[in-house]
Amino acid sequence: MSVHLTKLQKQLCNALQDGLPICRKPYDDLAKYLNNDEETILQEVRGLKESGVIRRIRALINSRALGLTGTLVAAHIPEENLQQVTAAVNSMEDVSHNYLRGHHYNLWFTLQAESAEQIEAVILNLSRRFGIDFYNLPVERVFKLDVRFDAEGQEPLSDTGQIPKNEKAELNEAEKLILAKLENELDVISEPFEFLCGKELELRKFCR
Questions:
Q1: Is 5's pLDDT higher than 60?
Q2: The Cα angle at residue 185 between residues 179 and 189, in degrees rounded to 5
């Protein structure tokens, strides 16, 4: 079902694809950029989320920089087992996407772990559990395609983006906690980063 967007909503969709400003009141920044007011922008973003135009607002983490290894897994799941296997895969914490396709290999999902050996162990456990072959398709070459949609022109915009670095970042405990919190959905409120300003983090950058 298509959704009719106003001029402001289209402008918002384009602006948010560049990322939410990292400041205390990001929607106020967006409002100034769009010559509008913060409350109107907040209402519009909430409406776009409710209608499904905006799926989520949260941080995208480069898992390689955290020392994680990822792979794509494919399997042919008989129809009678599909619901059970899908539920099992969806319940796994290290699965980020799970797709059903109209193909012989009808189940595809992405899996992350701390090592290639751990990934193999997870896949082997699934195979033994359901008596089904799951195929490990690890990344051999990384491409970064930055796909955006021009809401005002209603045309998809694609460009080659910067390839994420593979080097593992050394993080302190506060930084790890920040990333863990930012992976969750951000509330569409005036100060969405306020939850980072607890005593355990002391993020003066956001709290001042």
A1: yes
A2: 110
Q: The domain that contains 189 carries what CATH number? A: 1.10.10.2890
- CB atoms closer than 10 angstroms to residue 64: 19
Spatial separation of the C-alpha atoms in residues 208 and 79, rounded to whole Å: 56
Confidence of residue 80 (pLDDT cuts 50, 70, 90): very high
Which one is predicted more confidently, 161 or 80?
Answer: 80
Per-residue pLDDT, averaged over 166-179, amounts to: 76
Whether this model's pTM surpasses 0.90 = no
Domain coverage including residue 75: 63-138
The residue among 66, 129, 127 whose CA lies nearest residue 94 is 66
Residue 166 pLDDT class (50, 70, 90 cuts): low
122 and 82 within one domain: yes
